[in-house]
Amino acid sequence: MKQSNKWTVKDVITTVLLTVVLVLIQLIINMVGMVNNFFSMVLSVGITMLVCAPVYFLMVSRVRKHFVSLIYMTILGIIFLLMGNWYLLPYYILVGVICEIILWKNGWESKKKMTAAWTAASLLYNGVNLLPLWFFWDTYYDFAMASGMEQSYVDAFVSYYTSEWLIFIIIFTTVCGFVGSLIGGKLIDKHFKKAGVL
Description:
Blueprint: H1 9-33, H2 37-63, H3 68-82, H4 88-103, H5 111-124, H6 127-134, H7 137-146, H8 151-161, H9 165-192
Helix pairs in contact: 1-2, 1-3, 2-5, 2-9, 3-4, 4-5, 5-9, 6-7
């Protein structure tokens, strides 16, 4: 039987609820990471993509519709917009569009396509930290100071993302996203389907 592409109220609720879960995971890891500059700036993004991958897989596999990734990324961008980082909204929308292109031909039926989409999103997620340095420093700096960040934290941020650490951060984040995708794919087969979630 052909899968309907028409969105239902249940699809909307599922997408929004799992998006909230994804955002909460990201915020919790970010808050925990603030206690240590190395963890916050070098490891936290990769760990976030690793932990969020299974939830993303569940969301895409359960809703089975176009634009799930775009909605998730747009909501995430809106949250950053409300926090003062307006430039991240169009960026996240772009990331969402890229994910949708990868998943367009029934990507929710292919673990390989979902893996490709999340791995690409993991790679591009580094733009969250690179865009301020390259194009929107004044906006980021004002946000950092208004958020109560210390100057030493901002200086460490600049140091990590303008040194050889940047290459490691990008590779680490992408690999974590890929590994998280493998875990997500296995969870779909071994647990989500058996539990009747999918």
